[in-house]
From TrEMBL:
PANTHER family: L-AMINO ACID N-ACETYLTRANSFERASE (PTHR43617), UPF0039 PROTEIN SLL0451 (PTHR43617:SF2). It comes from Phyllobacterium phragmitis. CDD domains: NAT_SF. InterPro entries: Acyl_CoA_acyltransferase, GNAT_dom, MshD_Acetyltransferase. Residues 3-143 form the N-acetyltransferase domain. It comes from the Bacteria. This is N-acetyltransferase.
Length: 163
């Protein structure tokens, strides 16, 4: 049976926690997802499902910026299912939903070699002040151009707990 991507449902919460914890081999990111959801900051939360089992998850949360922006984090796939395109499916569907909701830019903190394939670019985020500023903070304009070249961007408050 193929992998399908769909919106998170309340019955998925425990399985999502397990997937995120397994993907990162610690509970910090899974706790972050739970906190973002509890704070009302899970704007887009998608699962990848196969044969009734949740095998992946992605979350987009609001970012404070001078334009509508979301942060992509975390993206999680069960260790035995990684490198099979599941994470890419989740990210692409999330980006499509973000654009349809009027989001102008998605930011991600991650490995440039991975996220560039989706169009994320560290140079587009370089002018933005953030606790996460640096070569791993990347931006992707959803309409083809950045609405601003500089400013301040911050992730949802739950991210501060990561330290």
């Amino acid at each position: 049976m193929p992998v399908t991507v769909r919106d998170e449902e309340p019955a998925d919460i425990a399985a999502i926690h397990r997937v995120v914890e397994a993907a990162f081999q610690q509970s910090m990111e899974a706790d972050l997802v739970d906190r973002l959801r509890a704070d009302g900051d899970a704007v887009i939360s998608l699962v990848a499902e196969e044969d009734g089992e949740i095998v992946g998850h992605v979350l987009f949360s609001p970012m404070s910026a001078s334009f509508p922006a979301l942060g992509l984090a975390p993206v999680s796939v069960l260790p035995g299912r990684q490198n099979q395109g599941i994470g890419s499916m989740l990210i692409r569907e999330g980006l499509k939903q973000a654009e349809s909701r009027g989001c102008r830019v998605v930011f991600v903190l991650g490995e440039p070699a991975y996220y560039r394939r989706f169009g994320f670019d560290p140079a587009l985020a370089a002018g933005f002040g953030s606790p996460y500023a640096g070569p791993y903070l990347m931006a992707l304009p959803l309409n083809g151009e950045m609405p601003a070249e500089r400013g301040r961007v911050d992730y949802a408050p739950a991210f501060a707990a990561l330290g």
